[in-house]
Amino acid sequence: MSAASPSPTRVALTVDMEPDCPPFLWTWRGVTEGAPKLIDLFARQGIETTWFTTGDTARLYPQSVKAVVDAGHELACHGVTHQRFDWMPKDSARWEIQESTKRLRDFAEITSFRAPYLRFPGHYLDLLEAEGFRLDSSQALYKKDVPGVENGPSLVRIPASITSSALRIPKLLREFFLSRKPDPVVLFVHPWEFVDFRQSNLRLDCRFRTGQPALDALSSVIDFFKARGATFTTMRALGEEAHQRRTPQAQKAAA
Known about the structure:
The protein has helices at residues 29-45, 55-60, 62-70, 90-104, 125-130, 171-178, 204-207, 212-227, 235-245, 248-254, and strands spanning 10-17, 50-53, 74-77, 112-113, 135-136, 156-157, 185-189, 231-233. It is an alpha/beta fold. The chain is globular.
């Protein structure tokens, strides 16, 4: 067994606000029922988070997006329709990015992006640069990246650390994995996970320990990192720190 890594100093807790468990469901109980529970939990815990939100969420449930912004969280972009960017031509990807950015910037400043399913071609990064994004979180440490030469030199890329369903596994096993994640730790959840789908026919990872068990588990995750001395931050803040650490040569190349 390998030794645990040092306690992380920075944890970014993020929320992907989207339809319920796509592509298996396209209902919106997570946005209407789950998101308010998360906002309340984060208020009790006193932490700021980042909400990667689809353009369709903003169109259909503007009051939910406003509630996120009013609670002091970072609003970020998750495309329009929650379709896979690695399955669409570049013109369609451009529309998804431009349209979602336009809708979301009616509510707040938007500088961070995450593609649905954490799948985004590197040669589409220039589309994010063109819309003024500074950070992309469309990669994951636990999955193979999409092939393609990256073409967004001004962007900072910070991957997700662990899949969302892993935050719902039993406490001892969950904390074993979390304790070994390198800094910064980027976690993500979906509002639909906090709606009780346990008796549904959804795929196992979409339904096990959903609802109140998921909310209790997430609260425990926050307490776990607080006990280790971690600082909770937003993706925007992580991105700005990374930009400031870039060497003058790298900054010149990205200009």
